[in-house]
Design a protein that fits this description.
The complex is a heterodimer. Chain A has helices at residues 8-23, 44-53, 71-84, 132-140, 145-158, 184-187, 263-274; strands at residues 29-30, 59-64, 87-88, 97-101, 114-118, 169-171, 175-177, 196-201, 206-210, 216-218, 246-250, 256-260. Chain A is an alpha/beta fold. In chain A, strands 1-9-8-5-4-2-3 form a seven-stranded mixed beta sheet. The mean pLDDT of chain A is 94. Chain B is of the alpha/beta class. Classes of the chains: A alpha/beta, B alpha/beta.
Chain lengths: 275, 279
């Protein structure tokens, strides 16, 4: 069996698309998405990116909404390690490649690390323009007024944008980009990141990227503050962390509980505390 | 100061041949080239418009009035000729033919220099945005990213066009036809254009609304001082609004002059026919 499942031609083609994406931050590059052993729409884009990048000395971490243990993450990790025999980890600091679905880890990423996002819909303009041909012209034209009008209308009616995840960002003052459905909370982590951030949409056959230390700004009016989720006085019930992104969970008695969304960070804090 | 300058502008629908322009026009009474069967929509038009002037274009249907307007607004690409607009320059500061504008420059033209009001508000408004949102789109396009200022501007122009400001967040299809047209006017004016193009702005509206909208346009024009090109086959509208008038037939200008002159003392046989046909 060949290393990392994909044949060399496929890897070459995907790497080429990655290079182009890195060269034009935020620009959507088409690629020939391969048939994978999981269904399209279940992370095939991220999977193909990871498989075409991974080398023997890489350490892999896979998370699904911050969790190392949820089904999608476990299956992805098992599959990738079965075709590469690479070392896997839960530790954000130890990993060289982190494949993620809808979250950015709490711990700050470092140089040399690569964050691979699984993306359902790659083009943010899809939210305002159904015609992809027109959307492409809008990108070429840097015409994002429709996104702005959406923001304007939300601000008029609700005082702020209603978008809770997949918040539109402008990369390097040029392209409006879909950051994948990460919570608004994570939006500010995209900019000036030390790690390379790659985005893959397998079903939509698209790749795009944010190179390290790029400027990424959320779409906002000059006279309005960009506000992210706050959890006020809430803390994680398991490890006691505050100031992190918390999951809201209801038990059978309809009581609300809060836990860290990033499980590995939660484990780490708990370990420190019990020592 | 010239706001608009058109030189030798032509539009040929079809393949076109070398004889198209010479062998069509008002004297042959046909827009179809006898050699290649191409249709010549606009045939070597020359026009000038100064600051604050209002130009009317009249003519029978199919004479190329609307095509000419669309060529200026770049809804259609001209086949030949040059169009210059005030405040639109190339890198060296020389005036630049807007036909050569790239996508970015075209955006600049449409967001800052020229606005168009269509006969059908559906063409000029986005029905998925609220009335305020439609105006905001234009203001944002012209570079303003301050919410409060955008909101103020939207309110200001809605007020100017006599739309109740309390309805700023309603969607266009909640308004009547005349109101939709007035929202379209608000939108067109919100970017402070130097040149306003109007394509049959009141056709299809009832008479009282027509008069209101015409008065409104006239008042706003006096107040803000933009230049206008208005296409209409309604001579009443032309008489009411414009300073100078051109008469088009088969893609060519057959008569040009002061509006009252043309209406009182038409020279070209077609203009005479047109003026004598007023009910």
């Amino acid at each position: 069996m060949r290393y990392a499942f994909l044949d060399e031609d496929a890897k070459k083609e995907i790497r080429r698309a990655i290079l182009k994406a890195v060269a034009i931050p935020g620009y959507i590059v088409s690629f020939a998405s391969r048939e994978m052993p999981i269904a399209r729409g279940w992370g095939t884009g991220g999977l193909q990116l990871t498989l075409s990048l991974i080398k023997e000395d890489d350490t892999l971490k896979v998370i699904d909404q911050g969790c190392d243990g949820s089904v999608n993450a476990v299956n992805m990790r098992n599959f990738i390690s079965s075709v590469t025999k690479n070392k896997t980890t839960f530790d954000t600091k130890e990993a060289t490649i982190i494949q993620t679905r809808h979250r950015i880890p709490e711990e700050e990423l470092q140089e040399g690390q690569t964050l691979v996002f699984q993306v359902p819909m790659p083009d943010i303009l899809e939210t305002v323009e159904a015609d992809t041909y027109k959307a492409k012209i809008m990108h070429a034209n840097e015409d994002y007024s429709k996104l702005w009008v959406l923001l304007y209308e939300d601000t008029s009616l609700y005082g702020d944008s209603r978008i809770s995840n997949r918040y539109p960002v402008i990369v390097e003052n040029r392209y409006a980009m879909d950051p994948s459905p990460i919570p608004k909370y994570d939006t500010t982590k995209l900019g000036n990141s030390k790690a390379l951030q790659l985005f893959g949409a397998g079903r939509e056959k698209k790749i795009y990227a944010i190179p390290p230390y790029s400027e990424v700004k959320p779409l906002k009016f000059e006279d309005k503050e960009f506000q992210v989720e706050t959890f006020e006085d809430k803390t994680c019930e398991r490890c006691g962390n505050s100031g992190v992104f918390l999951d809201e969970i209801y038990d059978e008695n309809n009581n609300t509980h809060y836990y860290c969304s990033d499980t590995s960070y939660c484990d780490k804090t708990l370990e420190k505390r019990t020592k | 100061m010239k706001v608009l300058e058109i030189k030798n502008l032509s539009k040929i629908f079809g393949n076109g041949c070398t004889k198209c322009l010479e062998e069509t026009g008002s004297f042959t009474d046909s827009s179809i080239c006898p050699h290649c069967n191409s249709v010549v929509g606009v045939n070597q038009i020359n026009l000038e418009l100064k600051k604050g002037e209002i130009l009317g274009i009249v003519g029978e249907s199919g004479s190329g009035k609307s095509t000419l307007l669309q060529l200026i607004y770049q809804d259609q690409k001209a086949s030949k000729g040059e169009i210059f607009v005030d405040k639109y320059f190339d890198e060296n500061g020389d005036k630049k033919n807007i036909i050569d504008a790239n996508l970015n420059e075209l955006n600049y033209l449409r967001n800052k220099l020229i606005s168009m009001i269509y006969q059908n508000p559906r063409l000029g408004l986005n029905y998925r945005f609220s009335a305020g949102g439609n105006i905001a789109e234009k203001v944002i396009g012209s570079g303003n990213k301050y919410y409060e200022q955008i909101r103020e501007k939207a309110k200001f122009f809605l007020e100017k066009t006599e739309i109740p400001v309390s309805r700023i967040d309603d969607y266009p299809d909640k308004f009547s036809g005349g109101q939709q047209q007035r929202i379209q006017i608000s939108k067109a004016l919100s970017s402070n254009p130097k040149l306003l193009l109007l394509d049959e702005p009141t056709t299809g509206l009832d008479l009282s609304v027509q008069a209101k909208i015409l008065d409104l346009i006239k008042v706003l024009q006096k107040e803000i001082g933009f230049s206008m090109v208005i296409v209409s086959h309604d001579l009443g509208v032309i008489k009411h609004l414009t300073d100078i008038t051109v008469v088009m037939k088969n893609g060519q200008i057959v008569e040009k002059g002061l509006t009252d002159q043309i209406l009182e003392d038409p020279q070209h046989p077609y203009t005479q026919l047109l003026v004598s046909s007023i009910l």
